[in-house]
Design a protein that fits this description.
By secondary structure, this protein is mostly helical. Helices cover about 70% and strands about 5% of the residues. About 35% of the residues are buried. InterPro entries: GntR_C (IPR011711), TF_FadR/GntR_C (IPR008920), Tscrpt_reg_HTH_GntR (IPR000524), WH-like_DNA-bd_sf (IPR036388), WH_DNA-bd_sf (IPR036390).
Length: about 240
């Protein structure tokens, strides 16, 4: 994949997850190419990749259209991410994590502590936590050295709201959200401890348990669609239930 196609793919995926398209909207190559300042060929290839990822679908009239996702699809992707990340943590625990990786993970823990362990969090603290959280999960997945696992995670990362920070707490008050983030960050600490002590089964269980917070926040978002849409416009693409 050349650099222009990669750039277009990243831009289009970001637009989808930010809710810039509505379910059923036709994704025409020419307007998208003009908006992104690209030629039609990388747009066409990017659209084909997005269909393969399950983000869009073929339109009855030809080309592609935006699809709607069920809450079950999103919840399933979140749970699968937990299984995969848990296995990555187990590999690190059983194989022995490199010292530099442990140092990097502990830097993440310290950054998270600074963000959540204060009387009240500001928006900048929330942003800092998101950055830390993304880095923490990336370190575990890439650090385990399993290329097949990493490829699966890359694919899951393209699914709506399955990425590590996609379903961070969006409660009605910053105080309530801070409590959820503190709980999530305590699990980060426990995972690193299990990895460092070589406790593979515990590390895996913690990784799987960790994503339950994201799944609960999905339920919260669907129960409070007006609030969720303000914080995460793309949630409009998700419908309750199993059917599309």
């Amino acid at each position: 994949m050349d650099s222009q196609q990669s750039r277009v793919l990243v831009q289009l995926r970001d637009m989808i997850l930010k809710g810039e398209f509505v379910p059923g909207e036709r994704l025409a190559e020419i307007p998208i190419a003009e908006k992104l300042g690209a030629s039609r060929t990388p747009v066409r290839l990017a659209l084909a990749s997005l269909e393969h990822e399950g983000l869009i679908e073929q339109s009855p009239g030809g080309g592609y259209q935006m699809r709607r996702f069920t809450s079950q699809e999103v919840a399933d992707a979140i749970r699968v991410r937990g299984v995969i990340e848990g296995f990555a943590a187990r590999l690190l625990a059983e194989d022995g994590a490199p010292r530099q990786l442990l140092r990097d993970l502990k830097e993440c823990l310290e950054a998270g502590d600074r963000a959540v362990n204060k009387p009240s969090m500001e928006l900048d603290d929330y942003a800092a936590y998101v950055e830390m959280n993304d880095r923490f999960h990336k370190l575990i997945v890439e650090g385990c050295g399993n290329l097949a696992l990493k490829r699966v995670m890359d694919m899951l990362g393209g699914q709506p709201f399955a990425a590590p920070s996609a379903m961070l707490p969006m409660q009605s008050s910053m105080e309530e959200g801070q409590q959820w983030m503190r709980q999530a960050h305590r699990t980060h600490h426990a995972m690193v401890q299990a990895i460092e002590r070589g406790q593979g089964s515990r590390a895996q269980a913690l990784g799987e348990e960790h994503v339950e917070i994201a799944r609960m926040n999905l339920d919260y978002a669907l129960e409070r669609p007006e609030l969720a849409a303000e914080l995460m416009p793309g949630i409009r693409l998700v419908a309750k239930g199993r059917g599309s």
